[in-house]
User: Which sequence fits this backbone?
């Protein structure tokens, strides 16, 4: 299996899809050969160099630690890395929606991690989308977005729960209803209290929430509070002086208010009710 | 058509933008004039005033409910109207309650605030009327049937797909990946935020030709060239969008939420005529991923692209213009 490229850049940068494409070689996708890093460095667009957020080292060392700690159970690295990546790489959603940043992280900074985490046992290949692909598939952006959508204000606890379940982040992450914070929190709560567990159940619940959302407007049913944008700005600003995130305890996210408890509780109950009667493949209906 | 398990209003809400202002990073507010939004296009362009440093935008909204919303025998109670802003790129969803203008009025108004940090390109803005039906709160009674588009970058309020055209010397550009294509007059990049056409300034005179705005043969040649580029773009973005489709577990392909979705909705009726766009998408996806039929579809895709690029018009005017030039040189 490949190691990191000989030349790892010091700073994060933007790598466009067209520029990235030639580096997605057969050798890389089978995890056997990695580029040297030198040619790739020529085709990137730099990010402002007065911003400490773009130093590569804190992210690179996180990834190294994840590979060390989870060598024997690689999927478990997601729940550990997602909150820590999010707290290390403090981004606005505007910045995080730029796929070029994730392309650079996956191809220039840590292609060895992408292969380590996503090399399929059966096909002996990594799907190209893990390097460069939709936000909910790409190796690092899926973790960042999972952390962003499942955190409850500064609390990354729900992120750990959500990312600890591969079915959840695999199927639910791209569903639009997650964008409503109380809905995301209610989903985690159902997972946490054991109401839904298997992949089929999670799929079934996702489909149910989606279908019910066509007639119930969750924003009205279970309102969220407006966000204070300054809290996020301050947290991002603190990245300039922040120490490395703890490897042992969960970091703290931006000091935003959590989703209103009433709304989360009400949705949890509502979804549980819907789920009782939802058709889930393989589940026997008791009579 | 969707079927609802309760009574609703059959007609949609009409949503209008009535004002737009930006809050700048120095704390001042800049009210934008009416060129920032278009009711015809149902689009808002927050880039019109050229501010790069805005922090948030406040959009004034007015919604008119269809008749019947306040009928005494309505199946709902606690009528409320919400404006909802969504952005598929950044997963942002913001809602704001509108208030009734005067008692008994069908007009509701309010303000939607959006933050620059929350958006990369375009957001969608719609409205819902909700009420309590059979004890269930938040039931949708009716909604807007066509959302407004809020473009956080554009300087012109238009709905359609915007292309980014960039000029660069392919052999010397700092975008080193362009070097490999030094002998191409133009290239289409569909991996960027919006589809981008790179025009190769190494080709002598190409920039002068593209920028020409005379009325002679030259401008007709330019239009033809532009139509040719546009055909390439439409073809490339269609393939790009179809290639990136997400598939629901155990289900069919899903329409992308960004510009790729717009492209597909616009082109599919020409690619698979006579069926609903959802069905057209399924058919195209099946042909691409299945054993056969993808090759046969290329002619339809090309046709859809040629139509969008208005190539027939450009060719027609070009020929007319040549005929006239020939006639003039004969006499």
Assistant:
């Amino acid at each position: 299996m490949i190691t990191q490229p000989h030349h790892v850049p010091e700073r994060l940068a933007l790598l466009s899809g067209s520029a990235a494409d030639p580096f997605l070689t057969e050798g890389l996708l089978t995890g056997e050969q990695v580029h040297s890093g030198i040619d790739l460095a020529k085709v990137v667009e730099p990010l402002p160099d007065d911003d400490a957020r773009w130093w590569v080292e804190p992210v690179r060392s996180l990834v190294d630690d994840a590979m060390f700690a989870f060598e024997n159970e690689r999927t478990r690295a997601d729940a550990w890395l997602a909150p820590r990546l999010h707290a290390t790489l403090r981004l606005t959603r505007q910045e995080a929606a730029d796929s070029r940043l994730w392309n650079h992280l996956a191809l220039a900074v840590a292609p060895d991690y992408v292969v380590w985490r996503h090399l399929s046992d059966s096909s002996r290949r990594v799907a190209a989308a893990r390097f460069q692909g939709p936000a909910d598939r790409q190796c690092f952006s899926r973790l960042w977005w999972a952390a962003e959508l499942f955190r409850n204000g500064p609390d990354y606890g729900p992120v750990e729960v959500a990312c600890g379940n591969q079915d959840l982040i695999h199927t639910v992450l791209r569903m639009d209803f997650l964008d409503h914070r109380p809905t995301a929190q209610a989903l985690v709560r159902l997972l946490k209290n054991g109401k839904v567990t298997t992949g089929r159940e999670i799929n079934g619940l996702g489909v149910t929430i989606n279908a019910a959302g066509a007639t119930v407007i969750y924003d009205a049913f279970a309102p969220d509070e407006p966000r204070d944008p300054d809290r996020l700005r301050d947290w991002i600003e603190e990245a300039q002086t922040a120490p490395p995130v703890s490897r042992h305890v969960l970091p703290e996210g931006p000091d935003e208010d959590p989703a209103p408890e009433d709304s989360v509780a009400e949705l949890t109950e509502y979804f549980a009710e819907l789920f009782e009667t939802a058709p889930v493949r393989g589940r026997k209906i008791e009579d | 058509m969707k079927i609802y398990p309760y009574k609703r209003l059959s007609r949609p809400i009409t949503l209008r933008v009535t004002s737009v202002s930006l809050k700048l990073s120095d704390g001042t507010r800049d009210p934008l004039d009416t060129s920032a939004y278009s009711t015809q296009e149902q689009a808002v362009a927050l880039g019109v005033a050229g501010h790069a440093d805005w922090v948030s935008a406040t959009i004034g909204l007015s919604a008119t409910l269809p008749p019947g919303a306040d009928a005494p025998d309505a199946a709902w109670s606690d009528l409320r109207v919400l404006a909802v802003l969504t952005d598929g790129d950044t997963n942002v969803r913001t809602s704001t309650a509108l208030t009734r203008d005067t008692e008994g009025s069908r007009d509701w108004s309010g303000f939607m605030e959006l933050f620059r940090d929350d958006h990369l390109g375009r957001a969608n803005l719609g409205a819902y009327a909700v009420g309590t039906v059979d004890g269930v709160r938040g039931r949708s009674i009716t909604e807007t049937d066509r959302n407004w588009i809020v473009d956080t970058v554009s300087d012109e309020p238009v709905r359609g797909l915007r292309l980014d055209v960039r000029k660069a010397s392919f052999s010397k550009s700092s975008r080193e990946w362009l070097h490999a294509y030094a002998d191409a007059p133009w290239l289409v990049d569909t991996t960027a935020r919006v589809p981008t056409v790179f025009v190769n300034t190494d080709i002598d005179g190409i920039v002068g030709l593209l920028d020409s705005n005379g009325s002679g043969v030259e401008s007709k040649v330019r239009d033809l060239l532009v139509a040719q580029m546009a055909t390439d773009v439409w073809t490339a973005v269609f393939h790009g969008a179809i290639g990136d489709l997400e598939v629901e577990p155990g289900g069919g392909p899903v329409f992308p939420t960004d510009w790729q979705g717009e492209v597909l909705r616009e082109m599919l009726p020409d690619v698979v005529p006579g069926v609903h766009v959802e069905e057209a998408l399924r058919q195209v996806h099946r042909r691409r991923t299945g054993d056969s039929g993808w090759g046969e579809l290329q002619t339809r895709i090309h046709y859809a692209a040629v139509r969008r690029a208005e190539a027939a018009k450009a060719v027609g005017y070009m020929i007319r213009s040549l005929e006239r030039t020939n006639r003039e040189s004969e006499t």
